[in-house]
Amino acid sequence: MNTAELPFGLNGKLALITGGGSGIGLASARCFVEAGARVVLTGRREEVLQQAVAELGPMASYIVNDVTNRAGLPALVQEIEQTLGAIDILVNNAGINMKKPALDVTDEDFDRILSTNLHAVFSLTRECARGMIARKSGSILMISSMAAYYGIDRVVAYGASKTALEGMIKILASEFSPHNVRINAIAPGFIETPMFLKAMGDDPDRLRRAMSRTPMARLGAPRDIGLAAVFLCSEAAAYITGVSLPVDGGNSIGF
């Protein structure tokens, strides 16, 4: 049997992945295509998106979009559904981080992080959910963080955005799940992406501490997140909703 036809597959599904041109977003797109899904990638950098689609092949397409332009999100969803078909899966991957002592974080800094990581996520989720609820089918996946699980210094805005996201999935799951629209999250641990390496590059002590409390004693790969995303968005997870899955090498239970 073709693996895309198994319960763990996504054969015939259309997935919208924000921030899909690199890192975890691109790895998730690659796993989705392998599982039989068509993917639409969005992001702000067209060259990056073009390279990603060229790598992924004919099952992938892209639309240049900035999720923080919330007024334009209904039109984005409408364009996709009119040209490519109904959106079966939404992966809210786009996000930004900022490492700065809390006393140095300005109101503008805080608002900028929440605008991308929380406000835009809700707006796009709401617009995609309209069609999913009408069709009585859909899966929405949030990308959370270890910063929502425990206190990490110097990421107050980022941690606040991800903590709020964790609460939001529970509330939306309670509203949407009766319509067969599931909402879950993945909380990546320390994953070897450009964003992570940049954050850790000037802070070797932070990396040492991260590894010291990770039982598997290594960084994760973006593909680890992508494969977990395939599972949560597949029929194999049909009775799972409102959960946040740590994919972290045991970091969240390490000491």
From TrEMBL:
- UniProt name for this protein: SDR family oxidoreductase
Transmembrane parts of this sequence:
none
Which one of the record's GO molecular function terms can you name? oxidoreductase activity, acting on the CH-OH group of donors, NAD or NADP as acceptor
Q: Which InterPro entries match?
A: KR_dom, NAD(P)-bd_dom_sf, Sc_DH/Rdtase_CS, SDR_fam
Concerning its family, UniProt says: Belongs to the short-chain dehydrogenases/reductases (SDR) family.
Ranges of residues in domain Ketoreductase: 13-189
The record's listing under NCBIfam families reads: PRK07231.1 (NF005559)
**Species of provenance:** Arundinibacter roseus
Q: Which Pfam families match?
A: adh_short_C2
Question: Superkingdom, according to UniProt?
Answer: Bacteria
